[in-house]
Amino acid sequence: MTQPDLGRAAAPSLTLSERVAEQLRRKITQGEFAPGQRLSEQALSDDLEISRNTLREVFRVLTKDGLLRHLPNRGVFVAVPSIASIIDIYRVRRLIECQALAQAYPRHPAKKRMREALETALRLRETGDWPGVGTANMAFHMAVVELADSERLNQLFAQVLAELRLAFGMLQDAEFLHAPFVDRNLTILETTEAGAFDKAAALLGDYLIHSERLVLAVYARRLADGSIGEL
Question: What is the DSSP letter of 224?
């Protein structure tokens, strides 16, 4: 089944390297690259049909964003998030998402995108496609941020989602991570559609606290048993 597209079409004013950087961010968000994975410059430049010089500029941009890491004499790797970065990701999520939902315009079209993402997650749950459920979940939360009508916030949050997907990828149990939250998203959506935006924002705040605790608990266990390490 086709996965929800978390990104919008790139603006024509963007440079080639900016468009490719956005494309790679989307791939990270959709789980196509694993944390710690080494990226082949030759293979990627061939696949993306760009020069290696352009790809190196893309690598510099995504390294600055915290999504990639360059190790001298070893190459470029997908970043491995730290506990501190995960805590910061959730802090940003609470600040952005809850405010966007609390102040949403009742007829905002992003509510329809929230519904579409939730229905996709429900369908994928029935087939056991848990990575797909995770992608649909991220599309749902991207739509929540779109309620704020701020392109800057949309761009910032797209980067946050890419970092979050890296954290999820390290935990290697998509069902455990995403199963508890599909029905909670449904409750948030139904509360939003009923026009109770403050209540929906409070539900979302509780959701994010629960999600953060779950992710950090699993991360800490894997860190302790040595299955997560630095590059």
Answer: H
Quote the DSSP letter at residue 73: T
- pTM above the 0.70 mark? yes
Q: Residue 104 gets which letter from DSSP? A: -
Tell me the C-alpha to C-alpha distance, in Å, between residue 159 and each of 37, 162, 166. 18, 5, 11
User: For residue 216, what are the CA distances in angstroms to 39, 67, 164, 209, 225?
Assistant: 27, 19, 12, 11, 14
The residues that bridge with 75 in the sheet, in sequence order, are 71
Residue 112 in tokens: 């329809």
Give the number of residues written for the chain: 231
Q: Phi and psi dihedrals of 78, rounded to 5?
A: -65, 135
- Whole-angstrom distance, CA of residue 131 vs CA of residue 174: 6
Q: From CA 177, how far away is CA 62, in angstroms rounded?
A: 26
Whether 138 contacts 118, CB under 8 Å: no
The tens digit of pLDDT for each residue in 179-230 reads 999 999 999 999 999 999 999 999 999 999 999 999 998 888 877 877 665 5
What domains does the chain contain, in order, with CATH numbers? 16-78 (1.10.10.10), 83-224 (1.20.120.530)
**Contact (Cβ atoms closer than 8 angstroms) between residue 50 and residue 137:** no
